[in-house]
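can u do me a favor
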């Protein structure tokens, strides 16, 4: 759950897993293309504070294209796709270096992750990206994520990092998503053309009224206006994460949010665990079944993952990442989960000890057939 202080104010301190998205305009000086390194150092100090409070942290950082275009001295105005890709190839190196150094000064280790749309939309790749992020968090590194702009073309790209950050938050079960940019939150109408627009500090649910308030604002450096932030909000709150929109212009913007500074908070509609369970149980069409022995049934109900050794039969034609029905030895459904193996591989390792997986399949696969985090069981 989102951290709450005694006076009921929402806070970042106390959140378990936080995704922080940084807009290009905060990191890169518009005219010169210089990086705002002092600002980044102050942000890294804020992140350190949250990490010391026990939170897992992930950063989604824009800025590659903005940095690269200045380095390559590309003309102002809209870039062609190939130019944006070339700019990202140059800028991403510098961006990652700045993050690595700033986080290092706080004793934090940065890990660069470049994602394309398929990494969050295709279940097979989704499992891979999720496993890597989870491993990085477990060993205490801070993933610094951006879209892999150099290979993403218009039909296969997120296009804006607001939505990318929301997908990451959903994928990794974050309980909070912070969008830092040059806007300080949501107003009843786009404030640039509406001087009477009122600031909204809390949104209980994103309905058509809220969507209508967003307009289509944005700056020339970042793609995401308020509209994409609201789209991101829908993804995040449905996945059980609170979302905060706040200005990142001052130094220590995360600390400012925690001190009650101006921000719009969007309430989560669920918890990350429940949202994930609902997704696995209800929204995915199962592609096959795995039948398990009575020992495995007890192991699953005591919170363990399903190992190949506990499986007695596999049916269906499923791929890695597909949902399958888990049946007990009498053929009754006891739950559902995402399979870590294709049907043919699953059949080959059925009943085998996990230590034999490599010998049988010819590569060292995961030791679980269905990880406990990818499984929902019926009540007994
Ligand atoms: N991925 C882009 C970059 O790093 C930013 C996209 C956005 O501004 O949302 O330059």
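np, heres the sequence
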């Amino acid at each position: 759950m989102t951290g709450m202080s005694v006076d009921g104010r929402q806070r970042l301190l106390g959140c378990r897993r936080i995704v922080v998205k940084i807009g290009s305009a905060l990191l890169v000086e518009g005219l010169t293309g210089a990086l705002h390194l002092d600002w980044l150092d102050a942000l890294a100090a804020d992140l350190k504070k949250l990490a010391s409070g026990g939170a897992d942290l992930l950063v989604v950082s824009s800025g590659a294209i903005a940095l690269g275009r200045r380095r390559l001295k590309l003309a102002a105005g809209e870039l062609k796709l190939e130019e944006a890709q070339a700019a990202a190839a140059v800028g991403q190196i510098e961006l990652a270096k700045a993050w690595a150094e700033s986080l290092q000064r706080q004793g934090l280790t940065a890990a660069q992750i470049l994602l394309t749309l398929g990494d969050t939309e295709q279940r097979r790749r989704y499992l891979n990206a999720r496993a890597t992020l989870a491993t990085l968090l477990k060993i205490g590194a801070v993933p610094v994520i951006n879209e892999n702009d150099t290979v993403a073309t218009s039909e296969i790209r997120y296009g804006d990092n607001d939505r990318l950050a929301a997908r990451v938050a959903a994928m990794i079960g974050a309980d909070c998503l912070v969008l830092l940019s040059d806007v300080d939150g949501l107003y009843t109408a786009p404030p640039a053309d509406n001087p009477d627009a009122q600031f909204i500090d809390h949104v209980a649910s994103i309905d058509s009224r809220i969507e209508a308030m967003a307009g289509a604002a944005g700056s020339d450096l970042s793609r995401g206006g308020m509209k994409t932030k609201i789209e991101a909000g829908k993804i995040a709150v449905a996945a059980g994460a609170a979302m905060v929109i706040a200005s990142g212009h001052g130094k220590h913007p995360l600390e400012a949010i925690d001190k009650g500074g101006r921000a719009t908070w969007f309430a989560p509609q669920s918890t990350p665990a429940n949202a994930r369970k609902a997704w696995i149980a209800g929204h995915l069409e199962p592609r096959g079944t795995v039948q398990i022995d009575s020992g495995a049934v007890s192991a699953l109900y005591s919170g363990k993952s399903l190992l190949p050794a506990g499986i007695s039969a596999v049916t269906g034609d499923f791929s890695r990442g597909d949902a399958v029905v888990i049946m007990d030895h009498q053929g009754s459904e006891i739950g559902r989960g995402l399979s870590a193996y294709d049907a043919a591989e699953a059949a080959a390792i059925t009943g085998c000890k996990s230590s034999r997986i490599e010998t049988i399949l010819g590569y060292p696969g995961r030791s679980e057939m269905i990880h406990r985090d990818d499984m929902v069981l019926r009540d007994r």
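The two ends are 27 Å apart (CA to CA). hope that helps!!
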